[in-house]
Every structure is written in structure tokens, then in C-alpha cells.
What we know:
Blueprint: H1 2-11, H2 15-22, E1 27-37, E2 40-45, E3 56-64, E4 67-76, E5 86-90, E6 102-112
Antiparallel strand pairs: 1-2, 1-6, 2-5, 3-4, 3-6, 4-5
Helix pairs in contact: 1-2
Amino acid sequence: MIIDQVRELVGVGKITEANELLGYKYQTKGRLIRAQIQGLSIVIPTDSMEAIPCGGNYIGLVEIAGQENLTKIVVNESQEQTSSAVIFVDLRDFNELPHVSSLPVSIRWIEQE
């Protein structure tokens, strides 16, 4: 089944291959948390069952508050079995985002660096 193949490819960081199989960019939706770590903001996925790429550096189209930018994305894998990976997004190319505790975010993954 295609969805299982896509999950497997995404899980090992083969974003380009997953996108080719899908015919469009693999997408993750979540909430942007305004906390920053080393200049990157945290994104919490809204669907805990959704496949998140393995740890590493990626490029993706990130949409927040009506703005979309080609952006660096960093995924850190959790050391605990019970929690998923943490997604960090570089917000430097976004203009004045609303100052609220969390914002909806959409990531269309393009490739692993």
C-alpha cells in the first residue's frame, strides 16, 4: 500500500522519494510554539500518528499566518520511546508573526540536506 511505503520513506528521511511516490510534497501540520532554541522555533505536530522524518536537517515550504517561505527545518529524534521527534523551524525569513502563544503551521517537506 502506498501510504505504508510513504511512511517508511519519510521515517528514514527519504523525503524526495516519498514526494515522488505521492506526486506532491509530503505535509506535516502542527502548532508553532514561540519558544526558541538556538534561533529556531519549535513546531508540535497536531497528529501524533503522522510520520515525522528521522533526525536531520531538511528544507521545506513552511506556511505560518498566511506567509510561506522556503525554510531550514531541523528534526531532533527523542531519546524516549513514548515521545516523537521535535521539529524546529528557522523563522528569520518571516515578517512580524502575530504574538500569540501558538500558531497553526504547515510544512511541505522538500528534501533532506
